[in-house]
Every structure is written in structure tokens, then in C-alpha cells.
Amino acid sequence: MKPYAFGVDIGGATVKMGLFTTKGKLLDKWEIPTRTERDGGNILPDVAKAIVSKLIEEDISTEDVEGIGIGVPGPVGDDHTVYRCVNLGWGEFNIKGRMNELLPQIPNVAAANDANVAALGELWQGAAKDHKSAVMFTLGTGVGGGVVLNEKIVAGANGGAGEVGHMTVNPYESVPCGCGKCGCLEQYASANGIVRMAKVMLAASDKYSALRTMDSFTSKYICDLARNGEEMAMDIVDRCGSYLGRAMSYVSCTMDPEIYVIGGGMSRAGDIVANSIKRYYHRYAFHVSEKTDVVIAQLGNDAGIYGAARMVLDG
Hints:
Blueprint: E1 4-10, E2 14-21, E3 26-33, H1 37-40, H2 43-58, E4 65-72, E5 81-85, E6 90-94, H3 95-102, E7 109-113, H4 114-125, E8 134-139, E9 143-149, E10 152-153, H5 186-189, H6 191-203, H7 219-227, H8 231-254, E11 259-263, H9 271-284, E12 293-296, H10 303-311
Parallel strand pairs: 1-4, 4-7, 8-11, 11-12
Antiparallel strand pairs: 1-2, 2-3, 5-6, 8-9, 9-10
């Protein structure tokens, strides 16, 4: 195997990039702007230019590069075809084919959905290291997910594997999710969802809460109150954990991963969220899977570049 690999994580505002050894050591990381004008036509050329610049800077030959892995915010098929990335302005095209046109000296290119790539990164060098299968739940503005089985990303027939945020966990919900359905996990377990759920629970209860004195509040503030023992905030976090634990139990009945990883902004709440999830997961899971561990992600915003680099190491 050649000594170096590049990991690329394309976001709506910036492209995160990393130069790695193929043994998993991050040598350098940097960012470039995501230029979405011209239907995102500048993005991959900018990535190619940045890679060439780094190779020149580090005096590395393209012959010493194993490959380039790319994570993108949208569905990607097993053949590296992206099926629309609205935030980037992309339609449907083959990322590997386009990068091979831009950088033919490095033919080994792989692409996948960014959440799946982050899960692979945590499996390779993060919280799920030394495991072969993991499912990652990313709790941010929405709820994303990544599935890795036998150290391989599972994309699904349409690139939609891992869309755990749109699993129906409350069939009685009448308010629609952004996807158009009602009762999605994202409506209760995302940063926005937990705030929405808190407002509903506050309106239905007369319990004291510091939240009642505020015109607006964040999921972080709710978790901080819960950590300090405020009863109403603890109830809100508990409800969030119940939905997540139930969702994970559904996943275990189909995927049966070795470990679950919690990432995204809400993962910074740590044990206050993780312990609630574990309690309900163990209640709902099928008995052979009930001891599956739930851990907090370790790589933070670097998980995507780690996972992207890992994709190309199997050729």
C-alpha cells in the first residue's frame, strides 16, 4: 500500500481536508471555502487544486498517494454517484469519474454520504475503534446516521441507508417534519427537535422550570439544567432518550451492530444524554442485542476526513 491518502469532507460552507498516512495518522488538516455558484461546479476543481498544492508543499509525489476519499451531504450510491446535494447545487453525477478527469494521476477515488463517512472514521480511529460494525447517530440541527458493517459503509439501493432521523417513532404526531412525514425521530432528538418537544411538554405541565422564564432557549441549556438536576429539564432529556433508545432498538433488529456512536453538537452533552439512551435501548432491544454499547463520538468535526481517507485503503 502507498504511504499517503487524502480525506475530504464537503460541507455547505467549507470543505475540510486532511492528509493522512495510510496507517491512520493525521499529518495535516485545512479548509477551503465551498463555492456553490455555478451549481457547485467549482467545488471538485477546488478540491483537486488544494490536493495538488498540498502535495507540492509537502514534496509528495502522486505515485505515493493511495487515493482520495470524499464525503458529501447527500445520498451517494455504491458506484460513487451522487443523487443530488441540494446544499451544494449538485444534480446527479459520478464523483469518482469527475475527480479522475481532474486528477488522473490519482485514480483511486471513493465517495459516500458524509454521515456514513463519519461513522467509518469513528470505527477506524475513534470511539468505535477495534470494532467491525457500528451505527452512528448524529444529533445536530437534524438527525443523521451512518451505517458500517464489516468495516464497509452501507449505502443501500438508493443511497438512503442511515437516514435514521426519518424513522417514525411517534405515529400519533400531527406536526409534520421537514421531510413531510409526521413523527420522525428528528422531531424529538435533534437540537431543534428537543427545543420543540420542550415547549410542548412545558405547555402540558405545571412543573417549575427556569425554561418558563425565557423567551427562547437552546438544547444545550436544557441539557445543562438537566445535568444540574432540574426536574422538568430531566423529563425532557429523558423523553428524548426514550425516542433515541427505541430507534436504536429498531436498528438492532435489522443491523445488529457491535456498537452505537452518538455524534453531532448534542453529543457534547455527554452522559446526560447517553445514559438516558442506554436506559431505554436496553429496555426495548431484542435480548441478544440488549448489551450493545452506546458511546460518545471522539473525533468531533474530524470524523468525516478520517472516514473519507479510510474508504480508499481497500483499493
